[in-house]
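help with this:

***
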Amino acid sequence: MPVPADEAEEYTCIPLACVYADTVTGFTIYLRTPPDGNNYVFYREANLVFSESHRAQLTKNGVTHIYIHAADRKQYLRYLENHLDVILQDPNMPVDEKSQVHYSCATELVKDVFDDPRSGESIKRVQRMVNNSVYHILQQAGELSSFINIMSVDYHTYTHSVNVCVFGVALGHRFALNRSELRDLGIGLLLHDVGKSEIDSEILSKEGPLNNEERDIIKSHPQIGFNILADSPLLLPTSLEIILRHHERRTGRGYPGGLRDHQIHPFAKIAALVDVFDALTTRRPYHAERSSFAAFQLMQRQMKDDFDPDYFRELIRLLCG
């Protein structure tokens, strides 16, 4: 049955290549008729197997994209997450398309982590996601620039966590960290702001200046995040150090411990640097997004002694050439 045109905005276009044969998708599939029209026709139930014959028939009819209802978006992203390793290794899928799938899945995963940060299943999903991130960023040509091109310019804790993970893993790779080290670094980066899950959203999204009490609450998030995950048998101390220490500064002006240069774990130094860089290059209620060049200028002028100079120089080379 066709869907009326005035309901068309409720449907999302997805590549046929992202639906795998002999799987139960968990989301209902629709087709658009005609291909450039505004009617959406039911094709396949969510609880039925999508087979190779279905794919072949659609391909024979020139179908390259299918449609899902907006209400099924979360289920679709979880389906993609479960097949992400296959997607990222698909030689026929363009890098930009892979990056978009990867970014969307990672963002949705961070949302789920914030909803239930103590869930062991969520941490296992984070581990799998970071394994895929390390592969995608390190193994495929054009992957980092592709990621950067689709990163959200509007600051949100979820997308910020993904951006920080991407920048940090890419920077760690420049310093010859091995795959295991990059994995532990990436896990800590993706989880670095998990303590904000227990902070009032009105404070996190406040558009005006924070008062002293609100600033103190915000500054508590590294310790909160550490407390949430410290007993997890799935996380190594290096990942936890990032969660606890990503606001420490070499000058001792950071928090929660006021640590100085030699007291701060190298992974936490990377986290501190890319955390600030991403915050400066995304749109916030109190400032517009900045270019990479403008952000580096500001950091050099106002925060020169806060960050490890070797990491800072290499991040400039990584992102500005």
Notes: The chain is about 55% helix and 10% strand.
